[in-house]
Structure formats: structure tokens, C-alpha cells
Amino acid sequence: MSALLRVEGLSKHYGRRLGCADVSFDLEAGEVLAVVGESGSGKSTLLSLLAAELQPDRGQVLFRDANGEERDLFALGEAERRLLLRTEWGFIRQDATQGLRMSVSAGGNVGERLMATGARHYGKIRSTAIDWLGRVEIDADRTDDTPRAFSGGMRQRLQIARNLVTHPRLVLMDEPTSGLDVSVQARLLDLVRGLVAELGLAVVIVTHDLAVARLLSHRMIVMKEGRVVETGLTDQVLDDPAEPYTQLLVSSVLAA
Ligand SMILES: Nc1ncnc2c1ncn2[C@@H]1O[C@H](COP(=O)(O)OP(=O)(O)OP(=O)(O)O)[C@@H](O)[C@H]1O
User: Fold this and answer.
1) What are the residue ranges spanned by the domains of the chain?
2) 53 and which of 48, 84, 94, 225 could share a cystine (Cβ 3.0–4.6 Å)?
């Protein structure tokens, strides 16, 4: 069986400025890959390409669909791509206001995704939504509140429920814990780690925080100026980095 995701030679320029160049990696089902690097290293560009929000200059993204067939992300029609991103894949954004519908209730935010997969029975949609809110530690009595009334941590947990309710096989995460208090971050990371393991999710997580990469990922790629400079098992890369740039990145965290 081929990999769930095969990324080959992805490159993107913004005019003359390099976003990312020649990024390649495979991701197996159930595997968590962290993409780390300093600000401006191309992490967000890579994730936007994987979410088909940007078109690459070169390269391709191949994924295995639910029927086991390998598909080319950029060859899909717009409607098919949107359906894929709403059902088989998920995208948890750094800014929850971009990943949620802020004027729709929490229950509606989760239920909407179920409807995208064909659910029609109101009572079942509502009970599944409430069940998922519980799994992300949001009380049932908040079901009818909009996320505007939620704290930052609650919004991120709601995004997680909204994304996972359709049992996606791949979830893209963009700095899901940054901007939150340290104690809120720790709880959220614990929750994400538990759900990823329980559901056997494949994840590509972008983070500038090596502790997040250590906690969640099996493998990591290190980016610098748009290019991958090192890749390997997370513990190996963090404990024994081969590249001077990674050594610097790791030691600057330890010194901090
Ligand atoms: N819309 C854009 N227009 C022009 N240049 C861009 C655009 N988006 C990103 N870039 C440039 O592409 C390069 C990679 O940026 P990118 O945002 O992918 O890095 P990053 O690692 O995600 O950084 P951060 O952690 O700060 O989000 C940078 O030089 C950036 O200035």
C-alpha cells in the first residue's frame, strides 16, 4: 500500500520572493509529521499548498482516497477538493476565527460538517455534535452559544471537534496552540495527543515550538529559507541534529 500522502518537489514563489522550494516527503496513515523552522522559513506556505489554498509553481501532492486510489490534489475539480477538505481531511488553523463560523452556534459548527458528509437527521446530528463537544471538554450547556462567547482555548477545542467529527484521515494543523496561555496550551496538547492516537490520525503540524514537535510528532522536517534542511525521526533530530542549522535551533531553545 502506498503512503497516504506523497509530496513531491513542491515549490512556490510569491513574485520573486521564495515561499518554499523543492519540498518532498511521504506521510503514512496514522503518522504525525511536524514541520518546524523559524518565522519566514516557509512553513505556512507549505501548509497552504497542502490545503490547496495556493497553487504550486512546481511539484505535486498525491493522496490516497477512501477507496485506496491515489489522486492528484491539484487535478481535482473545485467542488471535489472542497468536499475532500471538509470530510476526509481537516484543517485546524492558528486563528480559530478563520476555522470556525463565528456567528453559528458551537453545535452548529460541528453539525455543519456532518451535514457535508450527508447526515440529515437533526436529532442524530445534534447528539453527535454534543458528544464531540464533550470529547473536547466543552459542556453540553454551551452547545447553543456562538464561539464569540468562547475563550481562545475553547475555540481551538471547538475547531478540533468540528474537524474530527467526520473522522478525517489527515489533519493539517497550523500552530494550533500558539497565542494561548501556557497552562491552556498544555491541556490542549494533551487533548490533541490523545485524540490523534485514539483515532489513528495522520497529521501535518506546523509549529515553531520544538516542544510541541517533540510531544506530538513521530517525524519532523526542518525548514530554512523555504527549503528542507533536515528530516528524520523526531527524537533523533532533536537529540542528535545533523545539520548546523538544526543544532542552532535546538540549542537556542535549550538556552532560552
Ligand atoms: N502572500 C505573500 N506574499 C509575498 N510573500 C509572502 C507571502 N506569504 C509568505 N511570503 C514570503 O514567503 C516566505 C515564507 O513565508 P511563510 O509565511 O511560509 O513562513 P513561515 O515559516 O510560515 O513563517 P511564520 O512562522 O512567521 O508564519 C517569507 O519570505 C515570506 O515573506
Assistant:
1) 101-167
2) 48
